[in-house]
Amino acid sequence: MHRSTLSLAMASALAFMVAGCATSSPDMISRNDAQRMSTVLDATVLSVRAVTVDGSQSGAGAMTGGVIGAIAGSSIGGRRDSAVGGVLGAVAGAMAGNAIERNTTREESLEIMVQLRNGERRAIVQAKGSENFVPGDAIIIVTTGNKVRILRAPQAVPLANPPLPAPVAGTRG
Asked: Sheet holding 107-116: strands in order across?
């Protein structure tokens, strides 16, 4: 009973670690990027193609799977069988945990080729977000630290109270 409870706890820990993995979604902002000034560039979409970002292999899945496999394998048979079962269970669990981590962290994404206003071209890969892009779309590229995301360009809104012109040197207002 105790071993099955421990196995369940380890499986829950693996699911929690995998669920907490990073994303490249343009709709998800990291807490570290909140309240930071970002650079914004205007650009136009040249092309969009679907790509898959390979899943991560941090080792957490393999380690957790190995522990769960060792516990499950060691409960087989008698003393000698349990040692062999534990080793085999650890190897099988590590392989399974690694595969689970890699598959659950894989992201369906977009590679978006853009042209900046100065004529330079860039390619940016980001997870599919809430916006769809097609060639010719006006977009903005938001850079915060070393992270970049593409968003649809907001429509320009005229200012209700335009700023006053700067005073001319040598005159008093």
From this structure: 121-127, 107-116, 39-53, 138-144, 147-152
Domains of the chain: 1-23+55-105 (no CATH), 36-54+107-155 (2.40.50)
Tokens 């968003």 correspond to 151
23: pLDDT strictly greater than 60: no
Contact present, 55 and 101 (Cβ < 8 Å): yes
Report the pLDDT value the prediction gives residue 59, as an integer from 0 to 100: 67
Per-residue tokens: 132 = 């769809």
Distance CA 37, CA 17 (A): 30
* Distance in angstroms (rounded) separating the CA atoms of residues 1 and 41: 59
> pTM of the entire structure?
0.53
> Which residue, among 49, 82, 84, 62, has the nearest Cα to 17 in the 3D structure?
62
Query: In the prediction, which pLDDT does 78 show?
Result: 64
